[in-house]
Amino acid sequence: RGGGRFRASALVVAFASLAVAALALAIRSSSMFSAGPPGGADKFGRVLRSARAGHGAGRGVSSQGAAQHSDFCRSGRVAPGVVAQLTASQLMEELLDPSTPVLLDVFATWCGPCQQMAPHFEEAAAKLGRRVRVVKLDFDQEPEMADKLGVSAFPTIMLFAPDVGEVARMEGGVTAAQILSLIAMRASDFASELRDA
Fold first, then answer.
1. What are φ and ψ of residue 25, in 5° steps?
2. Active-site residue, selected from the candidate residues 111, 126, 180, 191
């Protein structure tokens, strides 16, 4: 009788190991973790590159927090380790600031998976600290910007590298570990400080 329990436990462990291996393989090959923007977001990339070309270096530095975090975020509206909700114009300003990479969550308040993922996004922000600016954009308040970004599912997480643009995206609810894994996989695309993510 005791041997049966041992075999059942071993089976559970073996199954769990297979599930983890399958998830890792799915993450590497799935469209959930894409290497760049979908076709619709190419237009946004052109707009962003054009805006960067005409963007002044000191623009948007006005708050007291900007002086404290100027090497992290020139505007001062995004603090290290904290998720900041932005408007479309604020997001554009953050994307034009090459201080640090930007991790964006496009969400909808009525979206169940978005609500379930929110604590995971906050956990990832806390773990990333000063390495990445972590922000979110409410689809219902900013539908035009979500359209420009090529967002077609909620939640959508996008990673933007300084002076490069979008380097990765994930669609659907994910965990903090999956978010950190995405950043670690894409770290070679930009700032060396992310390799410790």
1. -65, -40
2. 111
